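Hi all, long-time lurker, first post. I run a small reading group and we've been trying to get comfortable going from sequence to structure in the token notation. Rather than ask abstract questions, I figured I'd post a concrete chain and ask someone more experienced to write out its structure so we can walk through it together at our next meeting. Sequence below, copied exactly:
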Amino acid sequence: CIIVVPAVKKLYTPLDTELGHFRRYSADELRRKMAAAGFEVVHEHQFSKLGTIGWATSGHLLRKRHLSPFQMKGFDLLLPLAKLFEKILPVPGMSLIMVGRKPQAADKRLAA
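-- Answer (accepted) --
Happy to help. Here is the structure in token form:
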């Protein structure tokens, strides 16, 4: 199972509602939900730190309810720069990817 979700609960704004997001997740919360569904988490990564700053600015400071085409084009242009900032910005990423797999039953492993 590969899942990408909006992260950082404090970032939830009307922008999320407009995009159909019902919530934002913490890594711990998503890990618990994956385990409850029977998955063992094999990889997780939070990303888009520059996006966090833009999202917080648009949603919380400017109180925008929609992303304009100009904003989307601007972010596309900044994408190469955003990749550099991933390693140095001291903020959490606004998105979270988690990969889980269903563990094999012990008897299936022994039979192989």
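A couple of things your group might point at:
Helices lie at 14-18, 27-36, 49-61, 69-85, 106-111.
The chain has a mean pLDDT of 89.
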